[in-house]
Design a protein that fits this description.
By secondary structure, this protein is mainly alpha-helical. Helices cover 66% and strands 2% of the residues. The protein has one domain. A hairpin with a 7-residue loop joins strand 1 and strand 2 (171-173). Helix 12 packs across helix 13 (297-315). The model has no long low-confidence stretch (mean pLDDT 90).
Amino acid sequence: MLYHLLVPLADEYGFLNVFRYLTFRSGGAVLTSMLICFLFGGRIIGWLRSLQAEGQPIRDDGPESHLLTKQGTPTMGGVMILFSMLISTLLWANLANHYVWVVLLVTMGFGLLGFLDDYLKLRGRSHRGLPGRLKLLGQFSIALIATFWIMELAPAHHATHLAVPFFKDLLLNLGWFYALFAMLVMVGASNAVNLTDGLDGLAIVPVMIATACFGLITYLAGNAIFANYLQIHAIPGAGELAIICMAMIGAGLGFLWYNAPPAQVFMGDTGSLALGGMLGAMAVIAKHELVLAIIGGLFVMETLSVIIQVYYFKLSGGKRIFLMAPIHHHFEKKGWSEPTIVIRFWILAVIFALIGLSTLKLR
């Protein structure tokens, strides 16, 4: 909004020229969303608490400590993140850029599904919310729309191609199978972040780390000079997504203020499904789908722990590899304190991010 209001005046008022620059608007986006969280976060939490007399339902089969330490804490804190991020993005982004609207469609659409899931859990006082098949149907429907929109916007030689990291010229033409692959990236990323969101602060910091990486990647991919220098595939217009990334980081920092142990509010599916979907959409746009699996290695690890646990349990007749899945609960059962698990997982997220970013130059 500010871009469209002020940039036309830049020729007359030279100081307004700064609104042309992504770097300036990215800085404005992070500060705006963080400020919104600080100003309205307490009120949002109070509102959520007034609607949720008993807070988020705690799993009976989860770690015993959660029944004591997390009982009564309100959920749906993702509302705070999405509200702050949306307002900041609308203020600072170039709204004529269609990629911005694609990412907002996925983020807010998945967030709405998560909100419905959280609402049903609260109403039924159970950790079972929206039926799994119905949730997946909603996610794939949103991802389908986003995928075909992205394919329509992408350069013709990229539309159905998969870029392979560490190889500068290798593009695999998947044809129409690419649409299914892109949908799986978005839905898979969404549910992977959702599985990771189990301890205070555990999911939000790795999401911010991954988002910062994709803020850089989309900025470089959207700049033909930088893309040519790094030998990555240039995606005209993708750089504007850095605004959304910075808006999310600001909102994430504001949310973390309230989510730091002991949490005053939980993200809930409202936040985790939305933020994972956002990362997936950005990876598809930037042609860095496989790199997302590296940068988001922590989310992959959490997801694999659940898959391995379920299949081993079925094949072995009831035996378990992990004491509990996802894997962060395994370490809780082993006696690790919650802050120890969270901080060590943050460290792993940084390591995965650095490995992922190295693909920008190792080609």
